[in-house]
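Hi R.,

Here's the chain you asked about this morning:
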Amino acid sequence: MDVFCGIDWAEGHHDVAIIDNTGKLLAKCRIDDDLDGYQLLLDLMAGHGDSAESPIPVAIETSRGLLVATLRTGDRQIFAINPMGASRYRDRHGVSRKKSDPGDALVLANSIRTDMPMHRPLADDSDVAQAVAVLARAHQDAVWNRQQIANQLRSLLREYFPAALDAWRHKAGGLVRADARKILAAAPTPTMAAELPLWRLKVMMHSAGRKRGIDEDAERIQTLFRQSAARQLPTVEEAMGTQAKALLVQLNAVCRAVDELAKAAERTFRSHPDAPVMLSFPGIGLGVGARLLAEIGDDRKRFATAGGLKAYAGAAPIIRASGKRKYVGRRFVKNNRLNHAGYLWAFATLTHSKGANAHYRRRRETGDWHAQALRHLFNRMLGQLHHCLLARVPCVKQSPSLQSPRQQRQLLRE
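And here is the predicted structure, written out as tokens:
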């Protein structure tokens, strides 16, 4: 490769630098973040030898957006450089710690000129895999937002309406439950809740989707709401009730978004060719499978070995050795979304696979704590998933010893 391009990404404009294989600056410019700017960039690269047969590699600090989508046409390699890594490269070019957008573009271009084998280009995922990634990540963000708003509501209710917390403390979902949100929206203060008749509580539970245990729960909740308890001043209580209703509006909206995004992600995931292989593993449902596919992708060249995938997911340990000292610990630099999905997968596998449960118990008996044993289990299962995806075969039924990828290949040959 004789020409390299670096782009310093910004919200309204982008600085571009094109260099040759000796580091000489061939061209630089600033483009706007619109179609005219993208065309100007493509024309500039074409003037320096960019073509469908020999595209110029590009280094940029982001992996998303319309600019990246425009550059990904054809076989061009796009390198998403971590901003922290770009900062370290900047220190190699000067000790004065000066910084400018055109200078950062030049640094990015030099980073792939000198160390291209050390950087991983963006995966060449299919359109369906990219769509699954968008929906699965949006669903995960919505779930996290739902929990954040629920925590805010819980903190507020604790200050003036603790009986509402006791009413759903031991129920799955807690304040996120549909019946809890419906009842609190109708009676956001202790005074209003104490006046709720039993029949209205039953109607609200039924309209929220409850089918069983309505009578018992309605009587229990009414008893809790009518018990004597400490109260805020009436005006303060009313103000807090108004704040609670505002939080409930946000919570209802994000709960609807979670449901809609979950359905869309699962529907798109089912249409992907890798879905049958992933769903054949114990503990992987539509939701976890969509998250795994979103982060792993379907570009088989991305992870040549299972070890690379394990390191990317944070499942493989990291070793720091110097002289006689050696430390083996967990990874902190990892794909947090994939790592979180792996925790859910490993935890669900405990009740769906005797082999996985036996492996988890052995790890606990050797001294691992819960999260450590789950991470070790995820590490083993991720290696099996990597093999099955490459071989395009479903998961082989687990033995009590939790078969390794080598054992699975032997069984497949038999």
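One quick note: The two ends are 46 Å apart (CA to CA).

Cheers,
M.
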